[in-house]
């Protein structure tokens, strides 16, 4: 089925508004009221078709997850996976994460995942990279003290750029993994892009960073 012009997508999301949150900007500072359990809140920015957020929801019932994906034709794939996973601790937001401070209060978030973010390789598009310093300012505002960013990518240039950007911002880089799959982390939940690039034999990079106290 072609996804581009899909009139059913709005209905599908509305019918499942227990997963795809309507009017998410009104939930700022109240996200835990959205979930059954008051527990740590983890965000994924650019969830794509949802393999990671649905898999993490299943693996970690002790965490509440929010996946943000701006493309409607893509987020409906994530919605299907969340429904199939039959998890109650995952919500999806069909919005552009251009400024997380409009969606989340100060210190409301425990962890942020950046998985295979668009690399924006041209220098003139640097500001669009999700690890540009203006994005780091937003992440720092919404993350709890000691909150963590976990980034995975296949893109060496984006990875190197991001490590520089984190470092220049003063972040503490706690892990740099240049071959995530070489270690066979049994708890690693793969994304769609990760599976695709890994199957082609490309190394997957991961880092974990925290903001300064
Ligand atoms: N994370 C998924 C994976 O690893 O399979 C998808 C990776 S894909 C390269 C990047 C996704 O991020 C796209 O689906 C895109 O629409 C989404 N995205 C990029 N910038 C975004 C933003 N500012 N807000 C919400 N979604 C965004």
Strand count, sense and closure of the main sheet?
7 strands, mixed
The CATH topology: Rossmann fold
Helix fraction bin: 25-40%
How many beta-strand segments? 7
Which parts are unreliable, with pLDDT below 50 for 5 consecutive residues or more? none
- CATH architecture title: 3-Layer(aba) Sandwich
Question: What count of helical segments does DSSP give?
Answer: 6
CATH homologous superfamily descriptor? Vaccinia Virus protein VP39
Please state the overall shape, judged from the principal axes of the Cα atoms. Answer: globular
Q: Briefly note the structural class of the backbone.
A: alpha/beta
CATH class: Alpha Beta
Quote the distance from N terminus to C terminus: 49 Å
**Can you list the ligands bound to this structure?**
S-adenosylmethionine
Largest sheet, spatial ordering of strands: 3-2-1-4-5-7-6
